[in-house]
Amino acid sequence: MELDRRTVLRLAGAVPMMAAVPAAIPEGGGPWERLRARLAGELFRPGDPGYDEKRLGFFSLYDHRLPAGVAVCANEDDVRRCVDFAARQRIPIAARSGGHSYAGYSIVDEGLVVDLSRLNAVRILSGGRAEIGAGAQLGRVYEALAAAGRALPAGSCPQVGIAGLTLGGGIGVLARKYGLTCDNVESVRFVGADGKACLVSEETAPDLLWALRGGGGGNFGIVTSFTFRTAAARTLTNFNLVFPPAALAALVAAWQEWQPAMPDELWSGMGLGAAAANCGGCFVGSAAQVNPLLDDLVRRVGVQPLQRDVTEQGHLATMRTFAQEAAFPAAVAQRGEYVATSRMLTHPVPDPDALAGLLASDPHLYSIVDAYGGAIARVPSSESCFPHRSALGSVQITRGLDGGEAYARQVIGGVRDELGREYGQAGYINYIDPEMPEWAKAYYGESLPRLRRVARKYDPDGLFAFEQGLAR
C-alpha cells in the first residue's frame, strides 16, 4: 500500500488524532498560542467561539472534518506565518478561498486551514489590469470591475472564490471571447513551502506561472493575489431557452452543430436531466444581434421552447441566466448537498438519443454542458498547462444525496465511466471527483509530467500534499 505524506505523519505520531472535544491549550501557551499571537487576523481552535462556523466549507458532506486550527488571515504576512508554522509543526495545511472543493480538500482534517476570505480587495490598475485578492468571491469581483468599466471572463456562481476557479483553469461565460480565467493572469503573489512571499511572473518564475495557469488549487503553494488583464465593458445579452424535457436529444444534436458555428461573442451551455432540456448563455453584443442566432438554434432543434428569455445588459459583469434555475443545486442551496464529477466532450456526440437516456437515467441527475472553442482553443500549451483546449465542451454531472452519499456517487460514477468509454478519460480539475479513475492523467493530460516536476521543485517536502495533489 502506498502511504501519502499525511498518513506517514499520522502513523509516526507527528499529527495527533483530534477528538470531537475542545483541545486543551498546551502549558505555557504552546505553539498554537504563539501562532495566534503572531497573526494580525484570527485563529480558531476547537473549543473557541466561532470555530464550528469557521471550519465549514460549502459542502455539508465534509462537516465531520475537524481542522486543528482555522487561521483567518488579514494579510500576506499572516499566510507566511501559517506556512512556516505548518512546516515547523509538520502538520497538513490547505488554503481556502471560496471553499467549494467538490472533494472538500480545503477543509484539512487535523491540520491548519488558511482562510483567505479577508484577502478580497479588488484594485483597478493602469493599462486595463486589476489586482484581485485570492479570497474574493466572483460576485464581488464582477461588481467592482463593472463599476470601473472593466470585465473578467470567469464563472457563473457568485459565491465561488476567484483563486480556486483561476488555478483550475476557469471555465466561464465569456471564455470563447476572452479565454479562460487563467489565460488572463499576468502575475500572482505567492507564498511557497519555504514560507517566503514572492511575485510570480514571466520574468521571475515562468515555470511556476505556467503551472498556476490551470494546475489546480492546493498545489505548489498559496496564491495571495492575482494581477489580471481585463476587458473593456461592453453590452452583454443574457439568454435562456427552456425546451420540453422530451427534446433533450434533439437539443444536444442541434447544439453541438450550432455552437461551434457561432461567433466567439456567443457562449452557451446546456442544463440536461430527466426534467430539463435548457440552453442558456451570454452574447457580447445586443439582443437584436443574438436573436437571429437563437432562432437558428430553435430551427435546428425543431421544437419551440416553452420559455425564451433574452435580456440586454449594460456591462459584462452579469452571470449566465440558466445558473439561476431552481434545478441547479448550487443556485438554490446556501450550502451544497450534492456530489459531482465530469468528463470532456472530445468530439461530437454520435448518438444523442443514447446520451439523453444516460443523462436522464436517474431522476436526481442534473448535468451541465459548458461550451469550449473560440479563444480557449487558441492558447498555446507553452503559456498554460490547461490540457483540454481542443474539447467541444465539458460535462459536469451532479446528483443530490437522495439514497445517501455512497449511492449518489455510484450513480454519477456510472455516468462518468460510460461517457469515458466514448469520449476518453479526461475530466475538469475544478469538478474534482475523489473517485475519478486515473485522476492525475484525467485532469492534467500531457501536462502531468512537467507539472510534477514543478511541484517537486517548489514543494520538495510535500508540505501541500493532499489525496489528489501533485506533491504526493
Automatic annotation (TrEMBL):
SUPFAM superfamilies: FAD-binding/transporter-associated domain-like (SSF56176). Residues 63-233 form the FAD-binding PCMH-type domain. GO terms for molecular function: FAD binding; oxidoreductase activity. InterPro entries: BBE, FAD-bd_PCMH, FAD-bd_PCMH-like_sf, FAD-bd_PCMH_sub1, FAD-bd_PCMH_sub2, FAD-linked_Oxidoreductase, Oxid_FAD_bind_N, Oxy_OxRdtase_FAD_BS. The keyword S-adenosyl-L-methionine does not apply. It comes from Amycolatopsis japonica. This is FAD-binding PCMH-type domain-containing protein. Keywords: FAD, Flavoprotein, Oxidoreductase. Belongs to the oxygen-dependent FAD-linked oxidoreductase family.
